[in-house]
Amino acid sequence: MLTQEQRKKLADRLKQPLRIGSKTISSRLVLAPLAGLNHQAMRESIAAFPGAGLLFTGMLSARAVPTENPRKSHAFSWNDRELPTLVGQLFGNEPEQMAVAARRLESEGFFGADINMGCSVAAIAKKKCGAGLLRHPELACEIVSAVRSAVTFPLMVKLRSGWLDDPAALENTIRLAQAFESAGVDAVTFHPRFSPDRRTRPPQLEHLKLFRQALKIPVFGNGNLCTAADCLHMLEKTGCDGLALGRMAIARPWLFHSLLNAEDEFENALGRLHDSATAYLNRLFELWEPGVARKYYKKFALYLSANFSSGSRMYGRLTKGENLDELQAALESAFAENASGLTRRPNMLMFSM
Question: Is the pTM of the predicted complex or chain greater than 0.70?
């Protein structure tokens, strides 16, 4: 646990503005690109506690984005307030298609575009998308070049250490990132794990350090950033320019605000969890039809439950309900039963489910 002096040191470092291409962000703490979690309701939950320098959408299919209707889409929707800090996270394997999708993002007023080359889910990777592009560096470079030529706003890429658990794979990924930098990519989010690892092994901070040393553009570190101590450790060990909070931002949406204000992120955690989860649940049912709202809530409930020592039981209790009233009642009951079981560090096993 950090001292107050260490928290202040961390906050001062994270509050420094950072230039990304033609734009500047107000903090070096951003929401990491994620799949299936960064939809509008979740981003609004996080934005209720100001602090994130950038917010990323969930994964957007480059094939769908050019004709997607934000009033009907669950993934491609937003509120106008978030556009100045909102990055559209694209996945695809056709350069021109990716370029057209990026142009749509720019025309809508997004901060920038992010090309996902980090998702290792088989259904994505086997189609030469996400981390699958690490096996096809020529295609990856073609995609980056096509997108860069199509837009003027900031362009980012998310990468893993490599496709295989092999030192040569890391070297290849570093060379690929250098090629992206030469092609005009403005910043990179780096997750220092190999694709087969998913989230089963600790992030390799030495990978992130080598990656940062090889590039001139900003590099955001990502992976197992659960506490202020984790954040300070990654910054000091790797020299990365900023931090991308992923699943922990879903579990504790006030984390950005606490880190930037040198607060103990565990203080008032129970009340914040309850209030933010309640507001999030209500917002889901305001935005989308009940079936979709229920699906997103049950996915979120895993991360909410990870905050408690009896997480599995908490999850079962939270998800007993088929409509808004039943889920609200279940939430109140679950918090009443588990109020004393809050843990400072979450159950990482539930993060990997």
Answer: yes
